[in-house]
Amino acid sequence: MSENDQVLDFPLRSDEALEPPAEWAELREKCPVARVRFPTGDEAKLITRYEDVKQVLSDPRFTRRLDAEDAAQLSADGGVFNSEMSSMVPDSGEGHLRWRRLVGKWFTAKRMSALRPSMEAIADELIDAMVEGGRPGDLKAALGFPLPVYVICDILGVPAEDRDRFSYWSDALLNLTRYSGDENAAAMGAFVEYMSAHIAAKRAEPGEDLLSELIKETGADGGLSDQELLGTGIGLLVAGHETTANMIGKMVSMLLADRTRWEALLADPSLVRTAVEESLRFDANAGVGLPRYLPEDGEASGEVLPGGTTVMCSMASANRDESVFEGADEMDLTRSPNPHLAFGAGAHSCLGQALARTELQVVLTVLLRRLPTLELAVPPEELERVDGLVVGGLREVPVRW
Fold this sequence. Notes:
The protein has helices spanning 23-30, 50-58, 93-104, 109-132, 139-144, 146-156, 163-173, 181-204, 210-217, 226-257, 259-267, 272-282, 315-318, 353-370, and strands spanning 7-9, 33-37, 43-47, 137-138, 290-294, 298-300, 303-305, 309-313, 375-376, 398-400. It is of the alpha+beta class. The chain has one domain (7-400): CATH 1.10.630.10. A five-stranded mixed β-sheet has the order 1-2-3-8-5, with helices on one face. Strand 6 and strand 7 (303-305) form a beta hairpin. Helix 7 (163-173) crosses helix 8, helix 7 (163-173) crosses helix 10 (226-257) and helix 12 (272-282) packs across helix 14 (353-370). The protein starts with 6 loop residues before the first strand and ends with a strand. One of its GO terms (molecular function) is iron ion binding.
């Protein structure tokens, strides 16, 4: 496959929801900087090797300015990468560092550890309700989706009963081909209106939550502007539930797809931590990846890229790179170290990764304790993926116990 004679339609497809697209291995070997065409018809470059993805994500020349006039549009009808939301939070420089410093204080491993008991209590209650509902259950709807929503709503001081609205707004922001431009704009407008009112209420009556704390620091030197607060609230609500909710369903499906994996965890629950990391690495249905825009000339994998190029980094392909991970196409629950790129790399690596890790560990620990006989209610190849969004996921995760 030579670089010049083929343009691949992106996102690349695989036959089964838990399996990687066949092209990944070939691209890594023969065409590490491939030409791809987004659903809009715009062209970009796809990066699939581990070292190249890590380099691009860590190189400040590759920016998140996807609203630039000549940046490739991923979705014709708006979406998180090309929306006004993407410019609410500073993209680079001192402003970005200040934002990460202020918000990052809330997402330390220590703070997340303190939240663990309440997360376990939520997981227990949700499993109770699923069991009461009878078999088979949908693990995604019963546990995967509600748990991260309750947790992020608690962190932001937002009423969890509004979660259905958040879900719709999040989906619209993560749009690839599912929603029209009008639907997307209406959802964005409603989300901004809701979050603006929520921030105003926190100003008037601060609580113990993240937004209240950020508001207290605003006005002081180095605080956040109203727009930054708004972008932070919306961004965390979208990122804080959509990706983890999907990952819970995918992780459990991967572990149940081969019964020996689940049995190994039952025999040795101390493997939960490495099993979570391996699930993050092994996830072949992680979504489209991370796009970057190059305002000036740069290079990837030894190839010179002209200014104006949009690059899509496939962390999921990078995580299957045999040159970094021995037996990359095998799920090894004891793999350590495991330097996967599921949370990105560099200055924009995922701020909430300690939260996501804690939630995944809690869910797995509680499920192993409560439902040791858990199994998929359909063959793994019959699981259906969520389509039309920039995040990967399964429509449902039917389970028995």
